[in-house]
């Protein structure tokens, strides 16, 4: 009897368990109150289907209420916003590893901008301030910080999304800043059924360019756009030209970067997840965070996905999320500067394939011909790829800032209008012949001016000399105007602007190099005794500062060496010419052996 | 209150009686023939013109009248083209006739080249039209122009011809000047303020010459009253216009904006070495060249003028030209004495020892092709005439080097109720409907494309210009939308690059590579002219058949291409 009873209980339990199991399978997931109004909302993407996640897990609020007011209490419209992201995207079950990284990333901290501003304007050497700090402390810093707040502070991840119309409103919003595809809604939103903004890892370049179109203007240059002098020409009907940028600016068309022009690559084809979202370190400058170099692709190192452990898993995961690129399960993937996997650069068998992230199209990739004479020649070891292959760089000479204490201006961090208004104007702009110098990594690289002349006016509108300042710097960055061909030999070895003297006439008198500059900055009212485009004088004395420790113009010895070669070009035009194998020796021979053919030529041209 | 002060009554009565007694003519009207009564201390005009005032300033009929009621009937500037024959002509008939044929009077170069480029005439040379009566007088555009050819005369009259001897132009800082002979021979300072001793002249009211004096000592400042903007003359002083947008109205040292002169503020670049040394324009530019020699000429380079080799010798001239005024030789060295500045300069002579001078092919190169340090390279000139009021779009572009336009726009932009646009025709001084606005694609000073001048010598070219023409009529209808004109003979687009001599001479030549192996110099353009904007750096054919672009062979030679 006892056994029968146990059997019955067991059977009943089994039936109950079975039924309970069956029931939970056919019933829908616990329904959130949100969906009673928002009946038909599209999925943000396949990884976050509303059927699985509902609304609450991202947007919070009160899912148990059917009342709009109560339901929306504590709800966040943009879960990606950095002020809430720890409880939304970054919650323990979702992306807890990514959010702290992003908060430390340069796009969230803006450390480089703040540090450089404080360093150059107020000689503060070790500024450790970042956006989060400045948002919490309203009166932390002087003129440089006020400039940051009012002129720069509108482009960072902490900024609220949608706080303004137009491009500015699209900037900011934490994760959403990059991962949401912006669509201009024409019709008012129907709350019952609407298209949820689309989330993606295939970030369109527009999301980058909405911010990266000022300062170094990489987001423009890459696409062959050069912010123009603002004439708005040629006229279009009764209007000014339609090639416009935000802020009433116009652009001209110049040759685009070859990666765009030839391969239609987007920003994220090169810029990796770690490079953009950070690697957990609170970097001082952008270049510390960026995780790629030209060599990462053109002279690649590969890792087998299977052997790469966590990194390999990440590569597979990212490729899976991309949904367009072949998943590198059996392949090898490229490694970034910091050794992270580049899932779109794969080695399949012997074949190297670069996949375009937006559509998975394979792109032909040229491997860096290291052995070619133009790359291997002695003396060129310190050349960055950009020094020869960047066709142009946007150059803004003379940035004249007026700071008026009698007026107010919006502080982007607080949203409040506070006393002190900045207005910027310029002397002139150029794009051609980037000036070269030595960057902070000790490589020869292009530089572009950032020359600040601040005129401060007090509450009465009077100019205050003591508070006004000049700080003229040359800054090195990747111009993003890569060309297949390179600048010519003479373009660097004999052109005064490339060498850093500025435009003018470089000539030799009594065996000494001399220079007659074109720009007269003193007469042009700049209060400086060197041309605006002079990075260095003919004796190797720096004329301007740089924005990084270690970065500098060429010194006297380097200038001498560079110019020495220029005289040989008329005859020795080929990279593989023997004289360049040991140029010091060749130079010695030229000076001592008077029967060299050089002298015959020289005689022919010297009466 | 009046009622409480009985003492005032007689005074009031007297006052009204006086008024009642006075006729239409006040008994003590000023006789304006007594000039010296007011103009105490006025300077004598010149040693050769010590006449009574009336001889130059009153029409002959009025000279004999005992009484002159109206100051307005005094001829303020007897050298104005309207009066010059009557007054100056008595003694200077020959000079006046010559001046009337000079380019300063005819403006034939600008007029005929522009009309040809805009398709209004078949040739630019020989010239057909002039700003005066030396050739056919410049016609007016029709009321409803429909093509560049029909618009060009209006463009010339309202934009280009603000600088000619018949008009004072837009009077503004740097631009104050007289008309006729006085345009050159009466010196105006940049503010147009009188600095002399005449008690009657308000020294704070602009539009007066510096002193009441005719002179042959004409300083550069005077020439620059016209030869400004990005044109030869300004370059001699190292001036290059800032860009138009408000973004370029920068405050500089001391928090002050750069001074606006000639309608805009300027970059200061390297001055011409001759300017650095203190030479004046007229040290090189002779009377004959400036005032004409009686022959009608079609463009500036056709006028015989001094050459570098006249002072500095050259490939075939071992010594300076001894017949040139001011050149002397002393102990085998040559000197130039400037009678204007009183200074004597040792002359640096052309040296065959210099590497570039030893290359025989360089005999075909103008001195300026190498010795010009920089050049005016103003690419892509968009012009639009608007008869329709639409000012908002110009709010950042009110500074276009045109003081009239700036004042007009500033006024209209500050108003709620706006007027339709109107601007002066500088040739007939009438205010006409519509205004011309201009804009460049970009302007540079460091690029120097080469071509061949009228003697087939290598010369620096400058865009002059690459027109894009638009016209919006009074109803807002876009009649012409960004049209590139066709030349009058349909031979090419109405764009041109012209050889010229930049007045930016450097004592040393530019480097070999500023021409050799240089794409811009060779006419390939910046980045091979591969975009719609950089293609503007590829030169277009000069206007005159005697001038040409570089041949393909010459291009290849310059670029060492096979």
UniProtKB/TrEMBL annotation, chain A:
Transmembrane segments: none annotated. InterPro entries: Multihaem_cyt_sf, Multiheme_Cytochr_ET. One of its GO terms (molecular function) is oxidoreductase activity. Keywords: Signal. The keyword Signal applies. PANTHER family: C-TYPE POLYHEME CYTOCHROME OMCC, DISSIMILATORY SULFITE REDUCTASE SIRA. This is Amino acid ABC transporter substrate-binding protein. It comes from Candidatus Desulfaltia bathyphila. The lineage of its organism: Bacteria, Pseudomonadati, Thermodesulfobacteriota, Desulfobacteria, Desulfobacterales.
TrEMBL record, chain B:
One of its GO terms (molecular function) is oxidoreductase activity. The keyword Signal applies. The keyword Signal applies. SUPFAM superfamilies: Multiheme cytochromes. It comes from the Bacteria. Keywords: Signal. Gene3D superfamilies: Cytochrome C3, Flavocytochrome C3, Chain A. This is Uncharacterized protein. It comes from Candidatus Desulfaltia bathyphila. The lineage of its organism: Bacteria, Pseudomonadati, Thermodesulfobacteriota, Desulfobacteria, Desulfobacterales.
């Amino acid at each position: 009897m006892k056994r029968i009873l146990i059997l019955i209980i067991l059977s009943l339990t089994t039936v109950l368990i079975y039924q309970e199991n069956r029931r939970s399978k056919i019933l829908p997931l616990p329904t959130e109150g949100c969906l009673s109004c928002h009946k038909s909302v599209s999925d943000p993407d396949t990884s976050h289907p509303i059927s699985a996640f509902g609304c609450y897990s991202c947007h919070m609020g009160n899912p148990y209420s059917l009342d709009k007011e109560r339901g929306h209490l504590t709800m966040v419209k943009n879960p990606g916003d950095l002020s809430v992201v720890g409880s939304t995207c970054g919650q323990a079950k979702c992306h807890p590893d990514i959010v702290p990284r992003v908060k430390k990333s340069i796009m969230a901290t803006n450390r480089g901008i703040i540090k450089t501003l404080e360093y150059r304007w107020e000689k503060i050497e070790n500024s450790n301030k970042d956006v989060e700090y400045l948002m919490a402390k309203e009166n932390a810093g002087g003129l440089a910080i006020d400039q940051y707040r009012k002129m720069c502070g509108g482009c960072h991840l902490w900024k609220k999304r949608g706080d303004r119309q137009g491009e500015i409103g699209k900037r900011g919003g934490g994760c959403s800043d990059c991962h949401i595809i912006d669509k201009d809604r024409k019709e008012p939103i129907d709350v019952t059924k609407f298209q949820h903004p689309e989330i993606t890892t295939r970030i369109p370049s527009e999301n980058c360019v909405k911010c990266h179109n000022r300062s170094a203007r990489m987001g423009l240059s890459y696409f062959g756009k050069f912010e123009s002098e603002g004439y708005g020409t040629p006229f279009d009907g009764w209007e000014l030209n339609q090639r416009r940028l935000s802020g009433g600016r116009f652009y001209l068309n110049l040759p685009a970067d070859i990666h765009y022009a030839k391969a239609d690559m987007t920003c994220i084809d090169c810029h990796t997840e770690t490079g953009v979202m950070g690697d957990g370190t609170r970097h001082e400058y952008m270049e510390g965070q960026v995780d790629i170099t030209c060599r990462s692709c053109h002279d690649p190192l590969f890792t087998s996905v299977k052997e790469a452990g966590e990194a390999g898993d990440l590569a597979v995961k990212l490729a899976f999320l991309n949904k367009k690129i072949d998943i590198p399960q059996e392949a090898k993937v490229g490694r970034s500067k910091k050794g992270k996997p580049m899932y779109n650069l794969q080695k399949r068998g012997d074949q190297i394939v670069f996949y375009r992230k937006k559509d998975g199209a394979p792109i032909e990739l040229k491997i860096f011909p290291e052995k070619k004479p133009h790359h291997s020649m002695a003396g060129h070891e310190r050349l960055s790829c950009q020094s020869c292959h960047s066709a142009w760089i946007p150059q803004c000479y003379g940035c004249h800032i007026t700071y008026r204490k009698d007026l107010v201006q919006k502080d982007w961090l607080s949203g409040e209008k506070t006393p002190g208004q900045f207005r910027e104007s310029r002397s002139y702009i150029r794009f051609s012949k980037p000036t070269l110098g030595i960057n902070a990594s000790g490589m020869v690289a292009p530089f572009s001016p950032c020359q600040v002349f601040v005129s401060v006016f007090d509450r009465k509108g009077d100019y205050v000399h003591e508070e006004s300042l000049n700080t003229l710097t040359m800054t090195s960055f990747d111009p993003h105007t890569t060309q297949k061909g390179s600048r010519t030999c003479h373009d660097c070895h004999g052109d005064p602007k490339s060498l850093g003297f500025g435009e003018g006439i470089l000539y030799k008198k009594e065996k000494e190099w001399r220079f007659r500059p074109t720009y007269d900055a003193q007469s042009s009212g700049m209060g400086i005794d060197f041309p605006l485009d002079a990075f260095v004088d003919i004796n190797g004395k720096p004329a301007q500062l740089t924005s990084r420790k270690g970065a500098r113009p060429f010194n006297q010895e380097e200038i001498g060496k560079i110019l020495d070669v220029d005289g040989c070009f008329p005859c020795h035009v080929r990279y593989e010419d023997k004289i360049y194998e040991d140029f010091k020796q060749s130079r010695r021979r030229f000076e001592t052996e008077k029967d060299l053919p050089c002298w015959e030529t020289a005689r022919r041209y010297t009466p | 209150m009046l009622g409480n002060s009985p003492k005032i009554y007689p005074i009031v009565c007297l006052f009204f009686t006086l008024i009642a007694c006075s006729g239409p003519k006040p008994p003590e009207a000023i006789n304006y023939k007594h000039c010296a009564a007011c103009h105490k201390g006025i300077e004598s005009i010149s040693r050769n013109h010590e006449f009574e005032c009336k001889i130059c300033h009153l029409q002959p009929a009025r000279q004999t009248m005992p009484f002159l009621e109206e100051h307005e009937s005094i001829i303020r500037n007897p050298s104005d083209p309207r009066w010059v024959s009557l007054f100056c002509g008595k003694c200077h008939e020959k000079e006046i006739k010559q001046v009337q044929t000079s380019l300063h009077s005819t403006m034939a170069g600008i007029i005929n080249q522009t009309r040809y480029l805009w398709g209004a005439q078949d040739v630019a040379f020989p010239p057909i039209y002039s700003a005066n009566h030396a050739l056919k007088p410049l016609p007016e555009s029709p009321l409803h122009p429909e093509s560049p050819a029909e618009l060009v005369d209006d463009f010339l009259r309202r934009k280009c011809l603000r600088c000619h001897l018949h008009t004072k132009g837009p009077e503004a800082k740097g631009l104050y000047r007289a008309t006729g002979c006085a345009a050159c021979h009466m010196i105006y300072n940049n503010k147009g303020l009188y600095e002399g001793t005449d008690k009657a002249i308000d020294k704070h009211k602009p539009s007066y010459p510096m002193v009441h004096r005719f002179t042959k000592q004409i300083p550069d400042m005077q020439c620059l009253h016209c030869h400004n903007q990005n044109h030869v003359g300004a370059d001699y002083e190292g001036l290059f216009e800032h860009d138009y947008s408000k973004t370029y109205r920068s405050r500089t040292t001391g928090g002050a904006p750069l001074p606006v002169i000639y309608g805009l503020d300027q970059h200061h670049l390297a001055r011409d070495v001759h300017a650095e040394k203190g030479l004046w324009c007229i040290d090189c530019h002779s009377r004959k060249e400036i005032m004409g020699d009686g022959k009608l000429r079609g463009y500036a380079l056709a006028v015989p003028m001094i050459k570098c080799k006249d002072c500095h010798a050259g490939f075939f001239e071992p010594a300076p030209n001894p017949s040139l005024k001011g050149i002397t030789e002393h102990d085998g060295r040559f000197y130039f004495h400037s009678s204007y500045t009183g200074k004597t300069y040792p002359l640096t002579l052309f040296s065959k020892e210099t590497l570039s001078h030893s290359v025989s092919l360089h005999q075909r190169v103008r001195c300026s092709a190498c010795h010009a340090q920089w050049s005016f390279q103003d690419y892509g000139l968009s012009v639009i005439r608007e008869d329709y009021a639409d000012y908002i779009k110009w709010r950042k572009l009110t500074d276009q080097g045109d003081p009239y336009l700036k004042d007009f726009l500033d006024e209209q932009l500050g108003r709620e109720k706006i007027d339709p646009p109107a601007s002066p025709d500088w040739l007939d001084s009438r205010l006409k409907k519509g205004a011309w606005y201009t804009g460049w694609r970009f302007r540079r000073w460091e690029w120097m494309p080469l071509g061949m001048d009228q003697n087939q010598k290598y010369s620096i070219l400058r865009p002059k210009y690459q027109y894009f023409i638009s016209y919006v009529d009074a109803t807002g209808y876009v009649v012409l939308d960004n049209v590139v004109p066709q030349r009058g003979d349909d031979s090419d687009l109405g764009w041109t690059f012209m050889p010229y001599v930049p007045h930016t001479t450097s004592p040393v030549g530019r480097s070999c590579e500023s021409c050799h192996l240089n794409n811009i110099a060779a006419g390939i353009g910046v980045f091979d002219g591969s975009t719609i904007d950089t293609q503007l750096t590829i030169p277009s054919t000069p206007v005159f058949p005697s001038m040409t672009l570089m041949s393909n062979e010459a291009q290849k030679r310059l670029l060492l291409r096979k």
